[in-house]
UniProtKB/TrEMBL annotation:
Higher taxonomy: Bacteria, Bacillati, Actinomycetota, Actinomycetes, Kitasatosporales
Source superkingdom: Bacteria
Protein name: Knr4/Smi1-like domain-containing protein
InterPro entries per record: Knr4/Smi1-like_sf (IPR037883)
Length: 180
């Protein structure tokens, strides 16, 4: 948990339970090579502890399982609605998509088709804002590390108000994808 505050992960453990030791854990090297940037420490720490998986059958958190370049292309290659240099409709997509400077890098999807991103603004990935777009095109952005944001969502202190009102559950459950 280097670089992260222990109380945040302690609280996440209280809410989600101890990580499932059977969760698949992959290497981040291929993902970061594919993307050309380091990913936020708190995000990697969360996925390394709990594994890629789903929260309350609502939010799927992606992350490497086998750690290959092919997997990285599969996970992160499909996120982007526009290509570098392509004109985008700023009313629909107010942020550029990675690899454009300051572009969105996906880390999750919800059951309604909303997408959850890091907004890669600046050289320090641990300071990147988080942005969420609903299936109807509503955007929400906030600051803070990945685990801080996830904790604020679970405690209903900071999360997109356009989300399903039944999420998060009072007693959230995280189900990791299993290693084969």
């Amino acid at each position: 948990m280097a670089g992260m505050t222990d109380p945040v992960f302690d609280r996440l453990t209280e809410l989600l339970g101890e990580p499932d030791r059977q969760a698949a854990h992959g290497s981040w090297d291929a993902a970061e090579t594919y993307l050309g940037v380091r990913l936020p420490t708190g995000y990697k720490t969360f996925v390394d502890r709990w594994g890629a998986g789903t929260l309350d059958d609502f939010l799927s958190v992606v992350g490497p399982v086998d750690g290959t370049a092919e997997e990285a292309r599969g996970l992160w290659g499909a996120w982007y609605g526009s290509q570098p240099g392509q004109t985008r409709n700023h009313d629909i997509d107010p942020f550029p998509y990675h690899p454009e400077p300051g572009g969105l890098i996906g880390w999750g999807v919800d059951k309604y088709g909303g997408a959850w991103f890091f907004l890669a603004q600046g050289p320090d990935p641990d300071r990147w804002p988080i942005a969420v777009v609903s299936d109807t095109g509503q955007w929400y952005a906030t600051r803070g590390t990945f685990p801080e944001f996830l904790l604020r969502c679970l405690e209903r202190r900071d999360y997109p108000l356009f989300l399903d009102l039944t999420w998060p559950r009072p007693q959230p459950h995280y189900l990791p994808y299993r290693a084969d």
